[in-house]
Design brief:
- By secondary structure, the chain is mainly alpha-helical.
- Helix content is 39%, strand content 6%.
- The protein has a three-stranded antiparallel beta sheet with strand order 1-3-2, covered by helices on one side.
- α5 crosses α7 (158-172).
Length: 209
């Protein structure tokens, strides 16, 4: 091929040289600056619920206050229900036992019961004070009483325990009626001079109404 030695020929020759050295392989420079995309994560496997069943739901949580209320409403284990006050240990029992102790100590139990029943009968008669302690402390009725005061008693003695047991049973109504409606009594051999109906003689004492 003939080239012109003019300016145009020189230009053409240089163009051919450049074309001969040009690499037809496309450049990868654009990929070098690019960030490769991360592979897509696989979709999570889906587990289908069996036909006709509802999806499981979390169990409801009871409010804290409701739980506390339920706990406090339960009775404590081993606790007993409260009971009413018994006759034992009352002032009335103490006064009656003192009367039995001083007036019938050493007498048969039936005689002690009879003395206690005289005191109780008086509270119901309308002729004496309406309380046991009022009857026992009434002036001039029982010689062991001093100015309305009851003397001290040795409460550890067997005689006191017996008198207290008699008083308790007479007050709660569980004692045998041995001096029905009797309001008075005195020791045998004493001339009382009463115009009263004799009810019974028990041990060393005689009872009247």
């Amino acid at each position: 091929m003939r080239f012109s030695t003019g300016a145009g020929g020189v230009a053409a020759a240089m163009l051919l040289l450049l074309l001969g050295t040009f690499d037809a392989t496309p450049s990868r420079a654009w990929q070098m600056g690019a960030t490769a995309a991360a592979p897509a994560a696989p979709a999570p496997a889906m587990t289908a619920a069996p036909a006709g069943t509802a999806p499981a739901q979390a169990a409801p949580v009871a409010p804290v206050n409701a739980v506390l209320d339920q706990m406090t409403s339960q009775p404590a284990v081993g606790t007993a229900e409260p009971t009413g006050e018994s006759v034992a240990g009352t002032a009335e029992e103490d006064c009656l036992a003192t009367a039995v102790y001083f007036e019938a100590k050493g007498e048969p139990r039936r005689g002690q019961v009879a003395v206690a029943q005289v005191v109780v009968n008086r509270t119901r008669s309308g002729r004496f004070p309406s309380s046991v302690c009022g009857v026992v402390r009434q002036r001039g009725q029982f010689s062991f009483v001093r100015h309305g005061h009851l003397p001290a008693v040795s409460r550890s003695s067997a005689a006191w325990r017996e008198a207290d047991s008699v008083a308790r049973k007479v007050l709660d109504g569980s004692a045998e009626r041995v001096a029905e409606r009797a309001l008075f009594f005195h020791a045998r051999g004493v001339a009382a001079g009463w115009h009263a109906v004799r009810v019974a003689q028990i041990g060393n004492q005689i009872f009247y109404r």
